[in-house]
Amino acid sequence: MRKILRIIIILVLLIAILYFMFANSKDEITTEDTLIIGLDDSFPPMGFRNDSNELVGFDIDLAKKVGEELGMKVKFQPISWADKEQEINSGKIDCIWNGFAYTEERAEIMTLSDIYIKGEMYFILKNGSLIKSQDELKGKRIGVQNGSVQQTDLENSEFGKNIEILEYNDFLTAFMDLDSNGIDAVYCSSITGNYLITSLKKDYITIPSENISKASGSVIAFKKGNTELKDKIQNAFNKLLDEGKLDEISIKWFGKDMFYRKVEN
């Protein structure tokens, strides 16, 4: 009986030790000095894997620079773009920083930063296409990224009722399907489109969109009500932008200053 009692005591002590080890380990991972950023790691030029499988991109460089300014470690967490709202609401990530487009609908369910870069929405087609206008795309197959604002805007537009919308996990796959005539066009932001057209070295043509897009620029998204972290990141970003310390990042990825600055009245 005493032997059984000793075994029970030892097991209880082992469980207690393991519990405290796990608790301390968890605390180290989730300290306030670490910013966990959710992103789609196949979304050039904002965040993607290079040939060495390293995570690079415009927003990657921006986040690292802001992290340095705040003295915070930055951890990038690839997520399913279609499940981004659940990821941020669950607390698995602190924010979404990945070419995240501002819409009024998103502003209702998340806390958003100021817009920091803008791009127009357009259709990309293969060179030689006989289609010359958005109206001529009716009845055609249009590729979008699953979970993107472009998908939402197309599905909710009058124009979207007259086309077949095909969803892709990323724009690179959509472009591959465009090349193989699987779709007639890709609908995306000029920020992403211009970069991909240049990097893929293809003679694509573009057609501007009309009465579709509700997005007005890219923002950083936080869990609804988390204004403390939003203000912390926003203030550091604004400081670096005002001091001209972010200009080289924009020039590196776009060849020019692409930052959007609000005009104060």
What does this structure look like?
40% of the residues lie in helices and 22% in strands. Mean pLDDT is 88; it is low at 17-30. It folds into 2 domains: 34-118 and 216-254, 3-Layer(aba) Sandwich (D-Maltodextrin-Binding Protein, domain 2); 121-208, D-Maltodextrin-Binding Protein, domain 2 (3-Layer(aba) Sandwich). It has helices spanning 2-29, 58-70, 84-89, 104-109, 149-156, 171-179, 190-200, 227-242, 247-254; strands at residues 34-39, 42-43, 47-49, 55-56, 73-78, 95-101, 110-112, 121-125, 141-145, 164-168, 185-189, 205-208, 218-223. It has a 5-stranded mixed beta sheet. It has 9 helices and 13 strands. The protein is of the alpha/beta class.
Characterize the overall form: globular
| Overall mean confidence score, pLDDT | 88
Major sheet details: 5 strands, mixed
Q: Roughly what fraction of the amino acids lie in strands?
A: 15-25%
- CATH homologous superfamily placement of the largest domain: Periplasmic binding protein-like II
H/E element order: HEEEEHEHEHEEEHEHEHEEHH
DSSP helix fraction: 25-40%
Looking at the structure, the CATH topology of the largest domain is D-Maltodextrin-Binding Protein, domain 2
Unreliable spans: 17-30
How far apart are the first and last residues' alpha carbons, in Å? 83 Å
Strand order of the largest sheet: 5-1-6-13-7
Quickly give the CATH architecture of the largest domain.
3-Layer(aba) Sandwich
- CATH class type of the largest domain: Alpha Beta
| Number of separate strands | 13
Class based on secondary structure composition and strand pairing = alpha/beta
